[in-house]
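INPUT
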Amino acid sequence: MRRGSLHGETDLSTVTFLSPVQEEIKLVEERMRIQADDTHSDLRAALEHLLAAGGKRIRPTLGLLVGNMLGAPLEKLVTLGAAVELLHTATLVHDDLIDGSLLRRGMATLNARWSPPATVLTGDFLFARAAKLAAETDNLALMKLFSETLATIVNGELTQMFTSRGLINRDNYYKRIYAKTASLFEMTSRAASMVSPANEATIEAMRDFGYQIGMAFQIVDDILDFTGDQATVGKPLGSDLLNGLVTLPAIYYAEGNPEDEDVLSLPNGGWTNNENMTRLVDNIRASNATQKAMLEAEQHVDRALARLDSMESCAEREALENLAKYIVDRKV
Amino acid sequence: MRRGSLHGETDLSTVTFLSPVQEEIKLVEERMRIQADDTHSDLRAALEHLLAAGGKRIRPTLGLLVGNMLGAPLEKLVTLGAAVELLHTATLVHDDLIDGSLLRRGMATLNARWSPPATVLTGDFLFARAAKLAAETDNLALMKLFSETLATIVNGELTQMFTSRGLINRDNYYKRIYAKTASLFEMTSRAASMVSPANEATIEAMRDFGYQIGMAFQIVDDILDFTGDQATVGKPLGSDLLNGLVTLPAIYYAEGNPEDEDVLSLPNGGWTNNENMTRLVDNIRASNATQKAMLEAEQHVDRALARLDSMESCAEREALENLAKYIVDRKV
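OUTPUT
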């Protein structure tokens, strides 16, 4: 389910990887929807709102494709997909509250419509239901993996909150995007192979496939923050930098221009100066920093694609290849 | 670990049920403490603060006593105890944030010291670690039960939030205190017997034991809100009513005094009138409503004690009897 604002080109590649699981994604969404059935009508409305806001459902798609390729039971993949997407949704609900964001994917966030208390509890409710769904896969190792990933994600957010703004540090950046994004892609892909009749080597290959496309996904997100069509991305260009968050394009630019006064100002609170940061964003856009960052994302995708080499040819393998390529080709 | 402000009498009965597991509770606290070891120093400090705030550790004590009585491995009981207490702590952290409470057990709440975002994330972190610990019991049924209980607790909080204030309704009250308190007592006692070599009948008996003392615990809490020593309880008398929350003593009073103008005003926002509510609190205190509520709590304890009849005599059974009795005898 894509939103109308996308480029035709991107639409095509999305369809390519979505088509083998298009019907199954509907089952995942239905499974998500019924989580609020036995609750208060306001909570049901909130979940409907969150579901209607859509999103690419890229994580459940990843799980379905990997699991189908390896012969996992559909029921477990649908349960896993719903658990992963609800966990993802829960983190977005709390993130938007924390950041005070009023829009996501062009729709009002929950905190824009509800009180902070109701938003906190709705996030908690989604965490709880995600954990319940994960338990319903009846796989203890998967359950452990799920709770560890939740801990990784939250710990990453806390670390980001406590880390001083304007910090230019590669290692810190990679850790952050792993916790924020790659860990859940990695978990999804690994978990889908764990509920399949796959051997350890295959599980490890699929874990790494998820990790690599997850890293690429977040790097591309961070590039789009500089290069994206503002209307499509839905936030001002360079919004990360304006919040003191130094991502890969800015790191490449800083490495190439260590004497740039705006770069030098960053760790000392320079990111709070809107005028200077607008200039820095322009300079980063005009430099080759975003290309360098894109090269790095492409290397991750290449490593992901190499992991598919040992898999048998099938529609799902082809879709996974397209999914990996889409991650660096996408415009939003 | 009791706080100084308690009555000697209460101290004695606490010691009676704590003594068989006093050393094991320290293991639970240590297991809780290390959950933040690999995280940011500020988060470690927050967890230390939450642990130092103490509390009676009544839930882990319940789990340890039931499990020891039934021959469960200590390691699993310590893990379960830490999981349950962290889950409990996580709900308190988010509750205090939502209610804007600045003090709990005489110490500053996390939200009194930290920003709302940091408090939201710390609660999330504690949820994540609680789930991780629950998974470490290596028991899938327990893991499911744990996530269901988390969902019950959060759903209860959401329902309370969406329910109109000033509502006088017994059924609503029982559902609320089950979700808020009894569900976690029930889960703890049931889970401790599930990791023991116990048969289904014993597990069911212990589940009900936990349920009954959990219901009694919350009813007594709600009575203490009217009758407690203000300094010891740590909040103004009748604070529930002043927040539009009608608990069992108020329900009994309303049933006995249906024409009382303050009672009649409740569903129509009368609870927002401080002067009238102070009068109502005084009237409830002067009536036999709190005694009637206490009788109901005692009936729950009696049912709990009856569940112990079929257990073999041992130090843990005796301690569980004392624990059940303490719940209605306590002053805080």
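end of record. Chain A is about 75% helix and 0% strand.
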